Amino acid sequence: MKKTVSGLYAVTPDLSDSELLSEKVAEALAGGARAVQYRSKSGDESLRRHQAAGIAQLCRERRATFIVNDSVELAREVGADGVHLGRNDEDVARARAVLGTDKIIGVSCYNEIERARIASFHGADYVAFGSFFPSATKPGAVRADIGLLRVASAEIALPIVAIGGIDADNAAELIRAGADAIAVVSALFDVPDSRAQAHRLARLFE
Fold first, then answer.
1. Each residue of 15-40: pLDDT tens digit?
2. Would residue 3 show up in a list of annotated catalytic residues for this protein?
3. Is 138 a catalytic residue?
4. Given this model, what pLDDT does residue 47 score?
5. pTM value?
6. Which of 3, 24, 34, 39 is catalytic?
7. How far is CA 20 from the centre of its chain?
8. Which of 42, 52, 8 is nearest to 163 (CA)?
9. Which of 14, 130, 140, 196 is the S-S candidate for 164 at Cβ 3.0 to 4.6 Å?
10. Catalytic residue among 108, 131, 135, 194, which?
């Protein structure tokens, strides 16, 4: 059965320390994260495979959804639940051909409703918009208006993910505007207690 994306969607920090990364992800899952995206821009292929496989196992144990950022092949290799595609990655059709119909394909749509329409037409399983707030992870990211979530939730019949500078103080307004999931990096992992922070964020969906 194909999984889905909703609630707290944890996006991993770029860490070379695999043990520390696994500990942080385990804490986020224990606190209520329902999905995890493995994102690594600096690790070599061997490290990325090792880390992704470890996080995939953690997610299986918690029955959480596991997504790999960018790489369709890595998602396939580690048995991820799906892949998240950006502007410069594979298209949805190619990803679907590799991963099959039972895997999730998410697409970054930035501040572009038309990109979301196209992704939906080609069979994406969720669309993501943002950055809604200044982001330490991507300081140069294009900014999206919160009103875009209202438009998308009324028009796009897919789960909608909000990303970019999200924390426990600003997430609620995104959820009210139509976000089915909030993707969080720094506010979840750059804190002393990721489990408590995950719990705080996950409760916003109750």
1. 999 999 999 999 999 999 999 999 99
2. no
3. yes
4. 96
5. 0.96
6. 39
7. 20
8. 8
9. 130
10. 108
